C-alpha cells in the first residue's frame, strides 16, 4: 500500500487490509514491509506510539529473516523512541544494533548506527561521546568510499564542533560538507550545513559572510525547486538581518517565507514565520 493520492487515512486503511492478507498467507516479508510503511506514516503525523509498535513488529521479522531492511526498521524505531521522549531507550537500542552489525561485518550499517548514536549523545549534551561516534563513522564511510554518508558525517561533525565552541573546526568541516552537500545531501543536510556555517560567521561577527553563505544556498534551493530549503534560507536571512537591525529586510524575508510555508501546508513553520512578522 502506498500513499499516492487520497488521504492518509485511506492509505492506512489500505495498508491494514494488505497487512491482514499477508498475515493470513504467512507472508512475513510483505507483512513487515506494511508495518514499516505504516510506522513511517505514523511518525510523520506525530503518532509516535503507533509508529513504535509498527516498527517493532517490522524489526522483529526483519531480524528473524536476517534482512538488510532491519536497518530501515531500526532507524524508524530510533526516531519513534526519541519522539516519545525516551532518548535513553533509543540509545540502548542503537548500541545493541551496533554490536550486531559489528559482529556481522556490515560496515555500512555500522556507520549508519553510529550516526544514530551521535544524534543521541549530541541531543543529551554528551559531546565527547558524540564526537567519538561520529569520528568512527566518518572513518568507515571514507574507507567505503560512500560520499553521501561522508557528507552526512561531515555535516554532523560541523554542527557538533559549533556546539562545543570550536568555531575554526566547525568552519573547516562545514566547508568540506558544503562541497558535497549540493549534489549528495538531503534537504535537511543542506539546511543544517547552511545554518551551521552561517552561525559560525555570526559568532565571528562576520555578517557579510553569513549572508553570503545563506544567499548561495538559497540560489541552489531555488534552482532545484526546493521550496522547503528556499523558505528555510529566507528565515535564516531574516534572523541575520534582524541581528543587524535591518528590520525592513528581516520583515520582507519572513513574509516571503511565510507565504511558502502556507502554500506547502506547513503550519508549524508558518507559525514560526508569523512570530517574526509580529
Automatic annotation (TrEMBL):
SUPFAM superfamilies recorded: TPR-like (SSF48452)
Origin superkingdom: Eukaryota
UniProt-recorded name of the protein: Uncharacterized protein
Organism: Strombidinopsis acuminata
